[in-house]
């Protein structure tokens, strides 16, 4: 499957380096489609970083609540000896989880990455509108070179998105289904890859909820 952009900016721009016998109209069309796919992928990457920040925050909050609740149970001596051992294990496990996700939140800069990818998408969309205007009017080769150079400049200013972001864009954008093999197997594989990005957040949040439910049952008992 061609046009897998996230391998590097050289791949992102290869569609604009067309053969010498390509018409000017064809060059504009290929550049426009390249910008469209890249901008869509950057917006998806921005939302991915936003979701990672949100899930990290929720994970820290839930696990912190679990640690506090389990510590309270131990202090009130409301658990049987075997349950107390399990509670101590869960406290250590949850405390490590809080530490790990706190470090992830402080070091990963999810919000900054989300903002930068969104900013890149907006910049590419703005330039894409200029390309479309020239496509409607009489396309000119010298203008194309300027627009292509501007596109490359934008790509050099920002980090690239993941291959997963590009694949999600293909799944969501029905317009490109006729150009790519976006069948059931491809969609399923993309879902699996997306799940692997977020599974640990869901696991620790569910574990924290289970711990809080156990605490609630202990108080009810």
From TrEMBL:
Ranges of residues in domain SMODS and SLOG-associating 2TM effector: 25-207
Keywords: Membrane, Transmembrane, Transmembrane helix
Record-annotated membrane-spanning stretches: 55-76, 88-106, 196-219
InterPro entries: SLATT_5
The keyword Transmembrane is annotated on this UniProt entry: yes
Name used for this protein in its record: SMODS and SLOG-associating 2TM effector domain-containing protein
Organism whose genome encodes this protein: Rosistilla ulvae
């Amino acid at each position: 499957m061609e046009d897998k952009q996230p391998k590097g900016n050289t791949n992102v721009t290869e569609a604009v380096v067309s053969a010498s016998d390509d018409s000017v109209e064809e060059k504009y069309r290929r550049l426009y489609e390249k910008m469209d796919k890249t901008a869509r992928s950057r917006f998806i990457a921005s939302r991915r970083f936003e979701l990672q920040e949100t899930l990290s925050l929720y994970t820290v909050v839930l696990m912190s609540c679990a640690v506090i609740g389990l510590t309270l149970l131990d202090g009130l001596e409301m658990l049987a000896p075997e349950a107390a051992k399990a509670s101590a294990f869960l406290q250590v496990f949850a405390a490590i989880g809080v530490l790990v996700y706190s470090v992830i939140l402080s070091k990963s800069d999810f919000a900054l990455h989300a903002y930068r990818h969104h900013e890149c998408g907006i910049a590419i969309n703005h330039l894409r509108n200029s390309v479309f205007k020239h496509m409607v009017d009489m396309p000119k080769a010298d203008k194309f070179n300027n627009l292509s150079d501007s596109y490359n400049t934008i790509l050099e200013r920002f980090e690239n998105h993941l291959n997963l972001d590009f694949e999600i864009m293909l799944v969501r954008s029905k317009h490109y289904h006729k150009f790519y093999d976006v069948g059931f197997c491809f969609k399923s594989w993309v879902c699996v890859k997306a799940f692997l990005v977020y599974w640990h957040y869901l696991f620790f949040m569910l574990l924290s909820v289970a711990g809080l439910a156990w605490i609630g049952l202990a108080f009810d008992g």
